[in-house]
Amino acid sequence: MKLTRSRKRFNVPLSSMSDVAFLLLIFIMLVSLINYRQEVKIEYPEAETAKRTDAEKNVEIWIDREGAVYLDGVPCTLNAVELAIADLYRNAPDTRVHIIADRFTPFREVHHVLEILQLLQYRVVSFVVKDA
To answer: Quick one: which of 22, 29, 43, 60 has the fewest CB in 10 Å?
Structure first.
């Protein structure tokens, strides 16, 4: 018995491929925007005691009344602070950053430094205050 092969042509409809690609793109964009981190809304208590830290593993960022920034006592720009903190995080991620600002420093000046630390996702930060 002799079998013959028949050649059938299969057609793949390409007109709907752009619709499928568009829907897949929308799905991926929506899934990537979902924030998986859940936070609990709490009211934080005020600190009653201060914690002393190891002075050997500290980097101090000083901000004076006019908004000038000093890194370990040396005047520098915000870009220099960003580079120094990035390098510090790479080499010793457990080093604590102390922010020391004058009482009359406008908060926007402190906020510039906090934005840098937030951008670098630096988590070991302390605000230095006067002992009571």
So the answer is: 43
